[in-house]
Fold this sequence. Notes:
The protein has helices at residues 3-16, 29-63, 68-86, 104-128, 130-157, 162-173, 175-186, 195-215, 221-241. With 246 residues, it is mostly helical. The longest helix is centred in the first third of the chain and has 35 residues, at 29-63.
Amino acid sequence: MTIFLWILLSTLLMSLIAWVGLITLFLNEQRLKRIIFPLVAFSAGALLGGAFLHMIPESINEMGVGVEVFLWLLLGFSLFFLMEQFIQWHHCHKPPSEHKKPVTYLILIADGIHNFIGGLAIAGAFIVDIKVGIVTWLACAAHEIPQELGDFGILIHGGWNKKKALLFNFLSALTIVLGGVIAYFLSTRINVAFLVPFAAGNFIYIACSDLIPEIKQEASFKNNLIYFSLFVVGILLILAVRYINV
Length: 246
């Protein structure tokens, strides 16, 4: 399979995750909450595992051990910090009744930008190495599921009906395909290896700023143990991919 097909199919599949909001049609909020937070813990581990065990080492292999790798990493980290500070975008993983001040269209626009950047990151990773692309996709997918559930909750809390919320959430997710295609054609003109440390910075920010703080709020020792265990499982899953031949 060609690199372009890897990018196209992986980004299309990622955009379909937006339909995970359908789950909320069959679950009450208590059950939804029990599902979302373990997913958040797992995705935090997967994102950090992807960044530190695959993306940063591969970036150093491609770009050398100079400061350039870490400048791109910091740029990726800083861009998501900027988005959260000034565009009011953040990863939200709460049921509908717990959302405050819903800003529905702003959430969709900001999430569209986030997904576009995700498309650039996934494509850049596949261009550098198929295995790194798979790891990047897995880490993205792990955190997209609880994020899309949270975004769907924001839209419902903002007064949207469920069909409209699902449709617009999916349209926002399609920007990931656009990002992937643009990165692929950009790679025919320039070296896009910088997208890998850039994406690693995105992953580190999301895991440390948005995901881990949410699961740290749990007061129950049992739940904390479950969340930490799933966090470790997320890291180990990403580590295991290093030993898979593609």
